Each structure stands twice: as structure tokens, then as C-alpha cells.
Amino acid sequence: DAGVIQSPRHEVTEMGQEVTLRCKPISGHDYLFWYRQTMMRGLELLIYFNNNVPIDDSGMPEDRFSAKMPNASFSTLKIQPSEPRDSAVYFCASSRLFGETQYFGPGTRLLVL
Amino acid sequence: GQNIDQPTEMTATEGAIVQINCTYQTSGFNGLFWYQQHAGEAPTFLSYNVLDGLEEKGRFSSFLSRSKGYSYLLLKELQMKDSASYLCAVFSGNTPLVFGKGTRLSVIA
Q: Which residues of B touch A45 (CB under 8 A)?
């Protein structure tokens, strides 16, 4: 298996623009997680899905953030409008079952100017 | 809520042994993970402890004491490539993994 795939790997955008991050989980994994990592706050869970259904989005910072999982092999995290404080590395991870090992994608490094 | 504490930074010498501690406060503990994260890369799984005691995997070992809310990761025969951040993460109740902020380990010659 190719592992978790994320795109783009790097994104530079200007404040106010829409940003869409994409993730393909490992095939057969029922759980998908979106994280944000910064030096100050570490690795924070934003939202997670079970069988394509959002279960807990309490970590989503505000309404500017939204996530979807239209099918078992694809998820998006959208920021609209983006702000400089959104600059971070965004990771997607997947696991077969809840509480099992999570496998991380390579991350998207987002810089909002 | 959950609280996970790890030292921010550690430095050790190539060939030596280093112990990275993690303490946590949580209810309904299920298990504890250790992940390694090299600079600019994704976290990768190292170990998982559910029961008290030591789990050994090559040069890496992980220990858990559930009664004390304590774990450590032991790295033996340190190599330069072990320079990375080490993340402790706790799984409890019905909540997904909560990660500590990580310990940045520098291995020096």
C-alpha cells in the first residue's frame, strides 16, 4: 500500500483566499483524522471521520474551517477565507479501528501571507 | 480533559542511552503510543503500551505504569539518525489520541 497520501505538499497563499487540502487514506482504514501542527500548540486534532461520517469536529478552530469525506478514499479540509494564523503543517492520518495505530500522511505545509 | 507532559528538549551523546519521560492525567485510560517525528516529516509509529511493564523492540523500549500515569521511551546505542522529536500520545475512553507536545532529542558526536 502507498500509505496515506496528501496534496499539495506545500501551499503558499494570500490572506482571504480559499485553501483546499486533500487526503487519501490507507485502503481498508475506517477512521480518518485531520491534525494541525505548530511549534506553539503541537499536534492538535481538528476532526475525525468514521466510515466517511464526521464524528467529532470540536477541534475545528472556527467556521472558516470545514471538512468532508465524500467516499472512503478521499477527504478534504477547506479553509475559507484563510488567515496568516492558519499557517501550519496539516496532517491527515488513518487507522483501521478506533484506538489502533494511526498512520500519517506526509503533511501539507501551509503558509498564508 | 487530558494533560500530557514531556520534556521539551534533550541532548545525548552518540552511543549512549537516553530515557524520555511522559506523564499523563486522564480518565478511562486505554493505551499509550510513542511516535517519532524527524524534522519536516510525518510522525511514525514506534510503540504501543496497554499493560504495565516494558515492551522491547530492538534499540527502542517503552515502559508503562498505569497507576503512576507514567511512561518512558528508552533509546539504546544512540545514533545520529535518532535526532528527532518523540511524541507521547494517550488513548482514553471514547476520545481519540491526544498527543503531547513532543521531546526534541539531539544526538551529538
A: 96-98
Widest Cα–Cα separation across chain B = 44
Residues 58-77 of A with CB under 8 A from B: none
- 8-state DSSP, A11: E
Chain B CB contacts of A48 under 8 Å are 96
Residues linked to residue B55 through DSSP beta bridges, in sequence order: B62
pLDDT for A56-98, tens place per residue?
999 998 899 999 999 999 999 999 999 999 999 999 999 999 9
Of A78, A102, A81, the residue nearest A90 (C-alpha): A78
Rounded CA-CA distance A76/A31 in Å is 14
> How many other CB atoms sit within 10 Å of the CB of residue A100?
15
Taking an 8 Å cut-off on Cβ atoms, the answer to whether A99 and B31 are in contact is yes
The Cα of B32 is separated from the nearest Cα of chain A by a number of Å equal to: 10
DSSP state of B81: G
Q: Does B30 touch chain A (CB under 8 A)?
A: yes
CB B97 within 8 A of CB A45: yes
- What's the CA gap between B64 and B71, in Å, rounded? 4
